[in-house]
Amino acid sequence: MPAAPGGPRLLLRRLREAMAEPVSPQARLDRIVVIIAANMVAEVCSVYVLRDDSMLELFATEGLNREAVHLTTMRAGEGLVGLIAANAEPLSLSDAQSHPAFSYRPETGEEAYHAFLGVPLLRAGNMLGVLVVQNRTYRVYSEEEIEALQTTAMVLAEMIASGELQALSPGTVNASRRSLCQPGVALADGVGLGHVVLHEPRIVVRNLIAENVEREVARLDTAIAEVRSAIDDLVERGDVAGAGEHREVLETVRMFAHDQGWLRRMREAVLSGLTAEAAVERVQSDNRAKMLRQSDPYLRERLHDLDDLATRLLRQLVGRDAAGPGVMPENAILVARSMGPAALLDYDRSRLRGVVLEEGGPTSHIAIVARALGIPAVGEVANATALVESGDAIIVDGAAGEVQIRPGPEIEAAYAEKARLRARRQEQYRSLRDLPSLTRDGVAVGLQLNAGLLVDLSHLHETGAEGIGLFRTELQFMVAERMPSAAEQQTLYEAVFSAAGGLPVTIRTLDIGGDKILPYMKALEEENPALGWRAIRIGLDRPGLLRMQLRALLKAAGGRPLKIMFPMVATVEEFVRARAIVDREKAHLSRHGHPLPSDCRLGVMVEVPSLLFQMDEIAAEADFLSVGSNDLMQFLFAVDRDNRQVADRFDPLSAAALRAFRLIAERANAAGTPATVCGEIGGRPLEAMALIGLGFRSLSMSPASVGPVKAMVLSLDAGAVGAFLDAELARTRDGASLRPALAAFAEANGVVL
User: Fold this and answer.
1) Which CATH code for domain 180-201+324-422?
2) Burial of 559 (0-12, 13-18, 19+ CB in 10 A)
3) What is the spatial distance between Cα 394 and Cα 404, in angstroms, rounded to a whole number?
4) Active-site residue 45, yes or no?
5) Where is the GAF domain (predicted)?
């Protein structure tokens, strides 16, 4: 079996020299295929580049007919070259023409060649093209030759990614730089146009070719040992010891770090002539390309663990710490695999125009913060961090749940106009700010804000909202590195009351547990966290935590009115126990001479369906009720709202949901107990119209929703929509959604939606 003369190291040196020559891109590529063919003892070497239209085009060849260059094309999956592009894996055949995928192209003259070896051209797991060598004989390529060609392919991929081949074929754009529309999940409404800022910038490997292979092997072994030791320390540290998600993730990363196959592939890449860091990047690029093509969600999830491990190893090799917020462009779009709310708050919000995440659903912590800040955000965008480079033009459509990467001029112009129209609508909404929130038939509908950060309070004046209907206290705990002390909590609550300027503020006690695990809190492994140990259940089982928060609230509100709301209450007895704790804290403060709130009202979030069958009792016990529609809907329909497979199976405007809402409104009104809807549906004009028709007279929502909902209220006849809903609910027998009927009612009656 022929061996490559001079080996892969000589090949890489010759490639480096060829790439440095001051010649045209086509001449350079023509020279490169000649060098590869000679070194591989091959009679043919060809480079196919993936175009922006997903076609593979022959860009250069040594051995095939030169007339076929820029003429021969094929789709991914078509022919042997297309098969390599589709699978992102090397293909070695002793008789290519006998393979079922072989596709004969007469213009190339390749019918004379039998042996075939092709490897994908990959960068960060993205397919850029295919590199092929061929021989007339029925030969078998060795593992060393396959490894050498893969190493060569990495160097070529960098040349393609640089964009210098773009001018060689009219209308062709390098596939790694083409415009993309990536679907995701809407997290926060709005449109953001700007340029990519990577939350954790990738380490760009500049030095690909090793000068001293033995030294590179030693560097790789040392870095692996350091990374393994660091991961072992993290696993054994007290803050992640014991069962829980954090430990499981680190255990998985540790398992990969000790995988001998992973280590062997990196060493082979170094021995083929790459630097240690280039070897890490090449192996991870291969892993990424293969795993992105997996249909098994578990295997795709493991990609994140491998990415994490490769990043740790690259940082060890190049001596770079994790990057944090740096200098941001004027219009920054933050792109991240995942991030917490504290990390988002570290960025300059005056320059931030949008957020794109590979992970994170609509109810995630960062989604809540993004909505609070009014920053358009899209989550669950597959492979987002690998598809972009820092500085790329990007558009975030938070309404449609889409991301436009490197958009063309037409798309950019269309979105710029969309942003201008949105700005004009917001200006129109601002003109309604000082108008009373009254329906056409004189029914007052209170519009309040949902909040969780001090920055939210500035929206009270901007929107003309009547107060804070829901202040989520857990956000303060989520963005802190440790449990906030009683004094720190009191300081925050005092600032909230001051910023509200005398407007009413409803404070929800700590709603943690389930999916809201504090960074410093030991995770409790539960089969169904949403139905588990969370919210008031933690407060009643660990009364010290609840007492500390209640004492801070009572002291902060001294001399002012205070409204406290308890989440996840399932029985009247739970509320009675929570009220008793408040009474004890009031008595304690009174004994020690602390001023008490001028008025202290205690309420319940109606979000557990069991309360629907205790409405008269809870309405009699509580001072007010607040409907948490997000949880109420998921519990009512047994649908995990974070599960995309089932999340859209229920509609809050279905007959069953509307009857549940009507029951709450009727029983609360009969008892004279104020009831507010503070879930997301209160901020959508059509749903808000239905809630008013069912009898609710107070809604709480995000700041961006106040304008659209107020415009709807001003154009609505509350009596008419109430009568319409009564008739529709009496008539409906199949439980279908009333959304189409309500939309038709709005259109026929001039309701602004």
Assistant:
1) 3.50.30.10
2) exposed
3) 6
4) no
5) 24-170
Kindly report, residue by residue over 474-533, the tens digit of the pLDDT.
877 776 667 888 999 999 999 999 999 899 999 999 887 655 666 556 656 666 767 878
Is 596 in a helix, a strand, or coil? coil
Look up the CATH number of domain 8-162.
3.30.450.40
* Alpha helix positions (H), 237-320: 245-257, 260-271, 276-292, 297-318
CATH number of the domain located at residue range(s) 433-749 in this protein? 3.20.20.60
Q: How far apart are CA 638 and CA 647, in angstroms?
A: 10
Query: Among 195-204, 281-290, 362-371, 570-579, which is the least confidently predicted range?
Result: 362-371
pTM: 0.67
Euclidean distance between CA atoms 65 and 56, whole angstroms: 17
* Cα–Cα distance for residue pair 665/617, rounded to 1 Å: 14
User: What one-character-per-residue DSSP string does 362-411 give?
Assistant: TTSHHHHHHHHHT--EEE--TTHHHH--TT-EEEEETTTTEEEES--HHH
Report DSSP state, residue 528: S
Task: For residue 418, give the H/E element and its range.
Answer: helix 409-430
Question: In angstroms, rounded to a whole number, what is the distance separating the alpha carbons of residues 70 and 25?
Answer: 14
**Do the beta carbons of residue 184 and residue 402 sit within 8 Å?**
yes
Give residue for tokens 């920054």. 332
Q: Is 539 strand, coil or helix?
A: helix
Domain-by-domain residue ranges, the chain? 8-162, 180-201+324-422, 213-318, 433-749
- With b for 16 or more beta-carbon neighbours within 10 A and e for fewer, the 283-301 pattern comes to bbbbbbbbbbeeeeeeeee
Q: Which of 365, 461, 588, 594 is catalytic?
A: 365
Whether 678 is catalytic: yes
d(CA 716, CA 176): 51
Can you read off the two tokens belonging to residue 557? 């509100």
> pLDDT digits over 13-47, tens only?
787 787 778 888 888 889 999 999 998 899 999 99
| Angstrom distance (rounded) from CA 435 to CA 463 | 11
Residue 504: burial class (beta carbons within 10 Å; 0-12, 13-18, 19+) = middle
**Vertex 692, ends 741 and 563: CA angle to 5°?**
145
Domain 213-318 superfamily per CATH: PtsI, HPr-binding domain (1.10.274.10)
213-318 shares its CATH topology with 433-749: no
Please say whether the beta carbons of 746 and 753 come within 8 A. yes
